[in-house]
């Protein structure tokens, strides 16, 4: 009989903790891991701005067409499905922006199927702005003669009023980052053939889109001195932005600025109803005054009233 071998007790290796690794921090120039850029260490800034464009449920067709016009003007944007307009929409939108790998968001919020609000937000740390959109005219409504290449980069122009106050400077910087198409974007074309005009009139931001038209000859070349004859032809769409509040965070947070001249559309409609109610009250008072006047001043009896009754 052979001797039995002694089984050596195998030392069990300690189990590794199965935890997800920490996500690296996302920036406009690449991804950071422990404070080191993984994309490239070159000092040249590369704009990787991407904008998420979405809307709330129960939006009207005119406002939906406006959103689609804005999407067609921004080649660096991404569309998403509709989001429920609730108090928790900020967290939902921030999560969608992160899933879509975007850095900004344009959210068209429709309330009561009458009022349109536009949120411009830098995600996930802010700031964000809430606008009331007025004077909406889509490309389908205007039918203007202007036309430009789809996906071309626009020239952004601002009126001199944007350098007047600090909050206008902040709004200008947010608009530049959201509406400015990155130079090396894969969907953008390296041409400048249209202009986005943002002008401040009566504390409202008015948006216009113009085509840069240059006269050409038969061989499709610019005539000598043709650059001095450049004209602007409007393309569309048109809309007006009334700033309501500027928040420090994304879709909320501390209020940096609040417009003191803002009047909500609900208050405007309530005043119109009161005016109509005032007209009806005036009619009722006039009717009662007429009755009191007839009672106080009765007509004299007519002598010939019963002459033809016989």
Descriptive report:
The structure is a single chain. The protein has 310 residues and is of the alpha+beta class. The protein has five helices and 14 strands. The strands form two sheets. Strands 4, 5, 6, 7, 8, 9, 10, 11, 12, 13 and 14 form an eleven-stranded mixed beta sheet that branches. The chain has a three-stranded antiparallel beta sheet with strand order 1-2-3, with no helix packed on it. The mean pLDDT is 85.
Query: Overall 3D geometry?
Result: elongated
Tell me the radius of gyration: 32 Å
Portion of residues in beta strands equals 25-35%
How far apart are the first and last residues' alpha carbons, in Å? 155 Å
Class inferred from helices and paired strands = alpha+beta
In DSSP terms, counting alpha (H) and pi (I) runs of 4 or more, how many helices?
Answer: 5
> What sequence of helices (H) and strands (E) makes up the elements?
EEEEHEHEEEHEHEEEEEH
Total beta strands: 14
Mean pLDDT: 85
Low-confidence stretches: none
Main sheet properties: 11 strands, mixed
Helix content class: 10-25%
GO molecular function: rRNA binding
GO cellular component, one term: nucleolus
Pfam families: Brix
Biased composition (Basic and acidic residues): 7-18
């Amino acid at each position: 009989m052979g001797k039995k071998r002694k089984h050596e007790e195998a030392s069990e290796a300690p189990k590794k903790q199965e935890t997800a690794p920490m996500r690296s921090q996302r920036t406009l120039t690449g991804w950071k891991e422990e404070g080191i850029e993984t994309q490239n260490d070159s000092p040249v800034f590369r704009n990787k701005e991407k904008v998420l464009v979405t809307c709330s449920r129960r939006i009207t067709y005119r406002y939906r067409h406006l959103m689609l016009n804005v999407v067609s003007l921004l080649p660096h944007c991404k569309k998403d499905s509709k989001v429920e307009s609730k108090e928790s929409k900020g967290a939902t939108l921030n999560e969608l922006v992160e899933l879509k790998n975007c850095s900004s968001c344009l959210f068209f919020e429709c309330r009561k199927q009458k009022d349109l609000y536009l949120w411009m937000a830098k995600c996930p740390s802010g700031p964000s702005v809430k606008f009331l959109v007025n004077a909406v005219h889509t490309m389908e409504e205007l039918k203007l003669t202007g036309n430009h290449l789809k996906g071309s980069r626009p020239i952004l122009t601002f009126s001199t009023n944007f350098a007047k106050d600090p909050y206008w400077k902040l709004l200008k910087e947010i608009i530049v980052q959201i509406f400015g198409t990155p130079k090396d974007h894969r969907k953008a074309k390296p041409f400048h053939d249209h202009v986005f005009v943002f002008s401040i009139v009566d504390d409202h931001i008015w948006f216009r889109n113009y085509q840069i038209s240059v006269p050409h000859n038969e061989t499709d070349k610019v005539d000598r001195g043709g650059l001095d004859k450049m004209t602007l032809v409007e393309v569309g769409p048109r809309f007006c932005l009334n700033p309501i509040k500027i928040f420090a965070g994304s879709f909320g947070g501390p209020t940096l600025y609040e417009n003191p001249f803002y009047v909500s559309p609900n208050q405007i409609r309530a005043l119109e109803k009161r005016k109509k109610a005032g007209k009806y009250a005036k009619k009722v008072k006039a009717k009662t005054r007429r009755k009191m006047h007839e009672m106080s001043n009765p007509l004299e009896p007519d002598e010939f009233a019963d002459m033809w009754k016989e």
